[in-house]
Amino acid sequence: MEIVIAHDYEEMSKISAGLIAAQIRKKHDSVLGLATGDTPSGTYKELVRLHKEEGLDFSKIKSFNLDEYIGLAPLHPNSYNYFMQENLFKHINTVPANEFVPQGNTDDPEEFCAWYEQKILEAGGIDLQVLGIGRNGHIAFNEPGSSLASRTRVKALAQKTIEDNSRFFESIDQVPRFVITMGVGTILDARKILLVANGKKKAEACAKFIEGPVTSQVTASALQLHPFVTVVLDEEAASALQRKEYYNWIRDHKQLVQKKIGR
Ligand code: GLP
Question: What is the position in ligand 1's atom list of the atom closest to the CA of 181?
Fold first, then answer.
């Protein structure tokens, strides 16, 4: 796991957008896994800038979003479909038929989940999966206790997540209790993973998943089992890490590290 500690949110967003852009430039028809939330919105803003000012081309990209609330139609302003349209898709040149976001108002969520997994397979699998992290250490909506082998499925939200996400709704009662989410196993199948996190409120979850044991109680810790994970944190999110000096040394000696160990 490569840990990159940025000074602030802006730098975190630039670094993570740079990594996504490098993936797209290397493989024009990359399959991206995308996340929603306050954390990646700065990254998406920078991707939009790279598209508008530097011609970053998304026309051959396919994307699969991590999750969606059950019961919200794609045009609902609190849906993740809507978030993706507003924060990314409508500003770049992705092809709508290639933008996959779980459908919250499907009649048959279970069948939908199987179809979604199938679509990811047909696309050739995810090349680069972007992730944020919940305060309880979840990735996508894989709440504590989720199987680390889980696939796309319906989950019930944990109380902490309902409280955290209520800031986007008029009242806490309006937060849907059920969601469709890619599983931890689905995420681990991606060829590369990029997790972004910022702010003091994520410090504890980051310390647990990076430096604690692999446990289904902190589903992000499953990323320790993946060979190509980059974590980009701001200083606040990194503040509870024990081995900060080591991560910073690697970051500052990147060329030497690449020469010696090839990463
Ligand atoms: C939700 C999403 C996660 C996201 C998390 C953190 O629970 N399902 O994918 O990582 O929120 O969101 P934020 O970036 O707004 O803190």
Answer: 8
CB 45 within 8 A of CB 13: yes
If DSSP states are collapsed to H, E and C, what string results for 81-128? HHHHHHHCHHHCCCCHHHEECCCCCCCCHHHHHHHHHHHHHHCCCCCE
pTM: 0.96
* 90 token code pair: 């409508």
The DSSP letter of residue 221 is G
Residue with tokens 């997540």: 161
Q: Is 134 in the pocket of ligand 1 (CB under 6 A)?
A: yes
Collapse the DSSP code of 196 into the 3-class scheme (helix H, G, I; strand E, B; otherwise coil) and give the result: strand
- pLDDT digits 0-9 by tens, 75-128: 999 999 999 999 999 999 999 999 999 999 999 999 999 999 999 999 999 999
Residue 160: which H helix or E strand, with range? helix 159-165
* Contact yes or no for 5/235 (Cβ under 8 A): yes
Q: Which domains does the chain have, with CATH numbers?
A: 2-260 (3.40.50.1360)
For helices 244-252 and 254-261, the axis angle rounded to 10 degrees is 80
Residue 70 Cβ contacting ligand 1 at under 6 Å = no
